[in-house]
């Protein structure tokens, strides 16, 4: 708010004076000696409060100061004070001004009355600056903002010394009473508040303090709202909370104070009379204020007091009344424009308008504030045109710039969240009251950058008017005649701006740059790049006009590098930017930048205008630039748009290796007509792919190139510059570059076509990626690079006659080089249909050279897949192990040189793969890289791929069946059974033994017959204190046996488990095994043995629970006789157990043995119950009603069957074989059947 009187536009927050927290020497001054003569002194004789609590309270009060808060109603606190701290003294301004010096009462006047004294800030007092006809100034506003508080707080501390308590309390009462009387006699309505800090913290002490405080309060006549106490607090947060509650309570009293002041101002306005001054004005033209002028003053006072109460609606209404009355016919209209009061009234109008704008924005009337801003500008413009010096002068433009700046600063002060940079909003939507109206864009409230930019435009207009000031008016007043000075007084509007002689020499550029910098910052924060760039151009122009070229370059170079204007085809702005930047770069001695700009300014296709003051010759760009050395400039098409357009195209999009493909390089010069020709020293084209770089150098031909349709066509011969040619078997292909020479002169508006034959060597996709033009002069050298990009428009192919043929390809600079068809055969000669795990794979490779010439060849083999085994590439006596290729370990490969393979010859190599441990699929790639000795520059590749699928040759499943161990269990009562010494003297297991049968079923998943050599079970690991032994049940015949595909085979193994000791705690024991099958292919050599390991699940061979095993047997001499059934109950635990055994009768057999019995088993023992069973049927299963139950747990135990037995849900089944028969028995059975048939007939 620069330029307006201090305090005139400050935010009105209630003033609070805190006394007694700072040293006593700190006294608030009034700032005016005339006021300090009769000032009212508020003084306290008691010492200030000290200690940590006072320091924390003082810091908290400073933090609560609302002087710098945003001008809006958004605040979290319950109070909003403008807080000032002082010592034990404070000065209040006098309520009445003193009697004017030299004033005497006229004794002849009847009656004799003394003069009426008024406030020193009133226009009725002679000592006031407003006397006798001034309206109001900022001093009255400062009086309530800084001098007269609404609340005066006195801080006191309590002492705990019993000997001094009464004396100190008496002094405190006298001190408070004295301050209260001074405030009461001063005539001000300031509220007094007393805050007592400290005291005893105990319960008894707190009650005593309450009594002391009550005595002091009653003695001073204060109420509970103004006499406050802060007891000792345990933490700073509690102390702050207590003080915050006190301020919130005092804020209500502060609002009452300003409400009373507003009522007093309204009461004085309602009188409708003009008060008399202390001394009548004596000058001839002096007059006092009219009633309307007093109404303006009272309305302003009432509005200010409403702002203190944050009643913005009332303040807005009162400011509006004062504003309209000020522009009325009885106030400002009657003030002559030559009077100082005229500018004071104009200043008051600005202050009222700004306060109205603040109220509108406080209330959220965004568009209303913009309209009010425009109305005040238009109203002042009309008033100045009618009564002032008009609007066609620098003073009016200076005021408009300040008025726009005030709006920007006001928006910043109000701190509108919706318009913050984080919201990226450019303007605010209108309020609901104006939503239905058709508003113009300038009626919306824009962010501060818009207003700063508007201010910069008025500052530029102000400078333009200042430059028109005549020379006579530029002289200082002391050198100008008085008559001319008088005429200047009425010719120029100097409201809030310098006099003409000062304005002519003012630094307008700094003012403009400050406004533009503020606007650019706001635009950049909201990502408005175009407006930011526009303002940067204006700033650079100002810097260049002031000779600050370095600063201009800092602004212009980022704009040029950004290429925003060029990408959007703003050529007029680009041209302006280039010329400005060229001038600055020339002054700053930056040759690189000058050449780059000249390279672009030659382009007439960008709608650039011709500059008659510049020679269109790129070779003379640095003629007037001082240089220390010859610079080398490197540019790209991303930095500069050149005047030369370049294209490169292959005639066909497909070519073959070893052949040449026609291509054209086309230059089109878009230089201005009449500009000097450009002679390139050389051209280089770089390719992506197998094509080597292409270089064309300049060569003077001396002959005139024929042009047709402004197209100059020339055929350029290219040769291969061989820097390294492969001459041995171990060297790579030849590294070459294509070179040629031609006339590289480019005339303005000319199209140069260079047709050439590009030799294609390696297969693949190749594309021209970069073209570099080399230009050299006496003063500088230039390298300009252009990237070849995909185009959406079709390119053209030129003929020698100048005709054009369209190439309907979006990438004409790309060609697909197909490989030269190889005639060398690469194949596997012994590839099998199926491979299996655990076998070594040997692959034979055959190379057959069917080319017409000898070939220098190398063989490349790659295998990729999961967990690739070791791979060896073998050729003759040479071997090479494959190594990982690439970043992962899934691909391995090796390359072995074959050497010179003569035509029509065959050679062989071998690939040896190690055994795979699991089913997997490998991919095999075999490549023969070779080139013919007659054409070493063209590589040829013959490749072939195979899939190697490796599967398991066998699959198996397993079943562990219970068996009865024939050996007796060791007994704790038989020491001989507990011996655990083996023959070798080592400890042998002597615990409980159990027997099992491991039944394995395996099948061949091969696609062919395999020769099975042997079967075995390998114990990998045992769990628990147990030892396991496995023996074969069946043996493979010597020489093996042939296993057919998809046929199931069985193999049984006996498993014996024995615990190490009877002392071992019972528990489950298990073993981990693997099934080993030794096999080979039928057609493989006898020495080949492949071992396949099939994993098996964990097998549990011992437990802690009782086990019931049943066996059935016959007498060997008479199988048809009685069957013996043995029921064995095993107790491996360390507990005494009792079991009941029950055998139910059946009509299918008869039995002899206990039908029901009880068995008592000692720990680690087993017992046998034997039955003799006579079956009634033969060749069938009989079901035994056998039940074994644990009598303690009442749990039926599962009976485990052995050979010849089975079990289902209903019980145990025993197989009864067919009875053995003789020949006589067969004859008798047949005769009986025949008799049965006859009886049936």
From TrEMBL:
Q: Where is the composition biased (Acidic residues)?
A: 1221-1241
According to the entry, every stretch annotated as the Trafficking protein particle complex subunit domain falls at 341-604
Where's the Gryzun putative trafficking through Golgi domain? 633-1217
Bias-annotated ranges (Polar residues): 273-286
* Start and end residues of each stretch annotated as Disordered: 266-286, 1217-1241
| Pfam families per UniProt | Foie-gras_1, Gryzun
Name this polypeptide is given: Trafficking protein particle complex subunit 11
What species is this protein from? Zalerion maritima
């Amino acid at each position: 708010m620069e330029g307006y009187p201090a305090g005139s536009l400050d935010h009105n927050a209630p003033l609070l004076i805190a006394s007694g927290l700072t040293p006593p020497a700190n006294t608030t001054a009034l700032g005016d000696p005339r006021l300090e003569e009769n000032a009212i002194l508020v003084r306290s004789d008691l010492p200030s409060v000290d200690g940590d609590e006072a320091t924390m309270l003082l810091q908290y009060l400073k933090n609560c100061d609302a002087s710098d808060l945003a001008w809006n109603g958004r605040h979290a606190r319950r109070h909003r004070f403008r807080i000032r701290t002082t010592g034990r003294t404070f000065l209040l301004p006098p309520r009445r001004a003193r009697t004017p010096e030299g004033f005497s009462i006229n004794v002849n006047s009847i009656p004799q009355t003394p003069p009426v004294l008024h406030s020193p800030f009133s226009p009725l007092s002679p000592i006031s600056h407003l006397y006798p006809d001034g309206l109001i100034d900022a001093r009255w506003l400062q009086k309530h903002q800084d001098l007269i508080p609404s609340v005066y707080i006195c801080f006191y501390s309590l002492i705990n010394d019993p000997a001094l308590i009464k004396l100190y309390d008496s002094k405190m009462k006298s001190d408070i009473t004295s301050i209260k009387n001074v405030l009461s006699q001063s005539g001000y309505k300031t509220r007094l508040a007393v805050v007592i800090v400290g005291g005893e913290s105990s319960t008894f002490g707190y009650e005593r303090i309450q009594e002391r405080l009550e005595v002091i309060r009653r003695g001073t006549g204060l109420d509970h709202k103004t006499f406050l106490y802060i007891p000792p607090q345990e933490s700073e947060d509690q102390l702050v909370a207590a003080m915050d509650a006190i301020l919130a309570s005092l804020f209500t009293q502060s609002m009452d104070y300003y409400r009373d002041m507003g009522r007093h101002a309204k009461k004085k306005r309602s009188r409708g009379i003009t008060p008399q001054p202390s001394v009548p004005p004596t000058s001839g033209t002096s007059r006092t204020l009219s009633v309307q002028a007093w109404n303006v003053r009272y309305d302003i006072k009432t509005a200010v007091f409403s702002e203190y109460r944050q009643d913005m609606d009332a303040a807005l209404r009162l400011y509006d009344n004062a504003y309209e009355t000020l522009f009325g016919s009885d106030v400002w209209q009657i003030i002559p424009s030559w009077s100082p009061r005229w500018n004071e009234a104009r200043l008051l109008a600005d202050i009222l308008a700004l306060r109205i704008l603040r109220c509108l924005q406080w209330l959220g009337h965004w568009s209303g504030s913009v309209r009010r801003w425009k109305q005040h500008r238009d109203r002042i413009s009309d008033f100045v045109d009618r009564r002032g010096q008009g609007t066609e002068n620098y003073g009016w433009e200076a005021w408009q710039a300040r008025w726009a700046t005030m709006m920007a600063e006001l928006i910043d002060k109000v701190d509108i969240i919706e318009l913050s940079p984080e919201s990226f909003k450019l303007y605010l939507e209108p309020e609901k009251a104006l939503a239905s109206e058709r508003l113009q864009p300038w009626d919306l409230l824009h962010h501060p950058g818009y207003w700063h930019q508007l201010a910069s435009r008025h500052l530029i207009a102000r400078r333009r008017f200042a430059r028109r000031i005549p020379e006579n008016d530029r002289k200082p007043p002391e050198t100008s005649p008085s008559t001319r000075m008088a005429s200047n007084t009425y010719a120029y509007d100097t409201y809030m701006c310098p006099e003409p002689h000062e304005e002519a020499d003012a630094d307008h550029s700094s003012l403009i740059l400050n406004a533009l910098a503020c606007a650019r910052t706001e635009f950049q924060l909201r990502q408005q790049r175009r407006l930011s760039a526009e303002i940067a151009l204006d700033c650079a122009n100002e810097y260049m006009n002031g000779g600050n070229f370095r600063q201009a370059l800092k602004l212009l170079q980022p704009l040029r590098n950004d290429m925003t204007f060029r990408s959007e085809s703003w050529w007029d702005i680009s041209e302006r930017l280039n010329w400005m930047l060229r001038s600055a770069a020339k002054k700053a001695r930056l040759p690189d930048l000058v050449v780059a700009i000249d390279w672009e300014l030659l382009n007439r296709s960008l709608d650039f205008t011709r500059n008659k003051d510049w020679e269109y010759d790129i070779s003379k760009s640095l003629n007037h630039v001082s240089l220390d050395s010859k610079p080398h400039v490197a540019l790209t098409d991303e930095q500069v748009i050149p005047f030369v357009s370049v294209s490169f195209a292959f005639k066909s999009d497909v070519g073959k290796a070893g052949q040449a493909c026609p291509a054209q390089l086309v230059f089109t010069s878009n230089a201005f007509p009449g500009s000097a020709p450009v002679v390139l020293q050389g051209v280089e084209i770089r390719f992506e792919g197998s094509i080597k770089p292409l270089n064309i150098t300049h060569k003077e031909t001396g002959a005139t190139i024929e042009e047709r349709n402004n197209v100059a066509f020339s055929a350029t011969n290219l040769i291969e510059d061989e820097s390294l040619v492969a001459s041995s078997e171990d060297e790579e292909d030849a590294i070459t570059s294509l070179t040629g020479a031609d006339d590289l002169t480019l005339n303005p508006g000319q199209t140069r076509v260079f047709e050439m034959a590009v030799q294609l060597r390696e297969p693949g996709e190749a594309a021209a990626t970069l073209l570099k033009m080399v230009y050299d002069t006496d003063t500088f050298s230039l390298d300009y690079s252009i990237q070849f990009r995909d185009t959406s428009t079709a390119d053209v192919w030129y003929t020698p006659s100048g005709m054009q043929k369209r190439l309907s390809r979006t990438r004409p600079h790309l060609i697909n080089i197909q490989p030269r068809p190889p005639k060398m055969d690469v194949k596997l000669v012994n590839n099998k249909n199926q491979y299996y795990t655990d076998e070594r794979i040997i692959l034979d490779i055959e190379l057959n050279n069917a080319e017409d010439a000898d070939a220098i060849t190398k063989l490349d083999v790659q295998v990729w897949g999961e967990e690739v085994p070791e791979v060896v590439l073998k050729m003759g006596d040479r071997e090479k192990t494959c190594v990982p290729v690439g970043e992962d370990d899934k691909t391995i490969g090796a390359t072995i040189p074959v050497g010179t393979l003569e035509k029509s010859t065959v050679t062989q190599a071998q690939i040896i793969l190690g055994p795979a441990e699991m089913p997997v699929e490998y991919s095999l790639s075999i490549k023969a890289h070779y080139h013919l000795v007659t054409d070493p520059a063209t590589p040829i590749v013959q490749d072939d791929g195979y899939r190697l699928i490796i599967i398991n040759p066998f699959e198996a499943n397993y079943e562990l069946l219970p068996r009865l161990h024939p050996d007796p269990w060791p007994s704790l009562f038989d020491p001989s059974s507990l011996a655990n010494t083996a023959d070798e003297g080592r400890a042998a297991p002597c615990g409980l033994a159990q027997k099992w049968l491991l039944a394995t079923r395996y099948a061949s998943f091969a696609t062919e017959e395999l020769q099975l050599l042997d079967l075995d079970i390998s114990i990998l690991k045992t769990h628990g204190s147990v030892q396991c032994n496995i023996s074969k049940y069946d043996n493979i015949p010597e020489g093996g046996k042939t296993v057919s595909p998809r046929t199931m085979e069985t193999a049984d193994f006996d498993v014996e488990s024995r615990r190490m000791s009877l002392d071992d705690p019972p528990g489950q024991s298990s073993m981990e095994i693997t099934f080993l099958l030794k096999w080979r292919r039928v057609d493989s050599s006898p020495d080949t043995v492949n071992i396949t390991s099939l994993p098996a699940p964990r097998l549990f061979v011992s437990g802690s629970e009782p086990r019931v095993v049943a066996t059935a047997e016959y007498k060997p001499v008479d199988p048809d006789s009685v069957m013996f059934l043995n029921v064995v109950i095993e107790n491996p635990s360390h507990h005494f157990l009792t079991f009941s055994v029950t055998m139910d009768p059946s009509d299918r057999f008869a039995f002899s043995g206990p039908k029901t019995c009880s068995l008592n088993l000692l720990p680690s023992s087993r017992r046998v119950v034997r039955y003799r069973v006579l079956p009634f049927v033969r060749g069938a299963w009989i079901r035994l009603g056998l039940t074994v139950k644990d009598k303690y747990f009442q749990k039926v135990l599962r009976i485990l069957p052995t050979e010849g037995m089975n079990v289902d849900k209903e019980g145990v089944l025993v197989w009864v074989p067919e009875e053995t028969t003789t020949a006589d028995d067969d004859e008798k059975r047949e005769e009986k059947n025949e008799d049965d048939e006859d009886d049936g007939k």
